[in-house]
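Much of our argument rests on the idea that a fold can be written as discrete symbols. In the encoding step, the backbone of a single protein was reduced to a row of integers, each denoting a local shape. This step matters because it turns folding into a mapping between discrete strings. For completeness, the protein is quoted in full, as a sequence line and a line of structure tokens:
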Amino acid sequence: MFSFAERLILFNQYEILKKLDPDKSSLYGRHQEVVERGFEDLYQELGITEETVSAAAAQEMNDILGLFRAIRGSSVAAGNTNPDKSKFVGFGAAQPHEQFAYADFLAKILNFPQEISRSADNQPEAQLDQYRKMLRRWDEIGRKRELTADQIEHLVA
């Protein structure tokens, strides 16, 4: 998976990290051994995944989160009568890797505020198709940031 040159670079990086962060020296030493010996089955232990998140998948997640920010920002002023349906349910681990990984990153690492729905029909694994339908409806109304109650109802229908 890694070329010899890449393994050598990683080995040296871990050597530097051992000096910079002595508290984690043993961890970096184990990572060095994995890289040095080319144990490909243990590369995932280095914290590196083979899977990537495409720009298109990231943009879709940004669009979905933008949609929910617009709904959340407009709900009080619009007198939203169905607040549970308009909350961001999130994504489940059964989603395709790209979507789940990016949304998980935004939620956990960047502390993206989520208003998780507590309704009985909260099934994050089934949400991506619903979010895509909502995006199409949002496109129909020009992706407005300030929504009326009728527009919110149309989006969450």
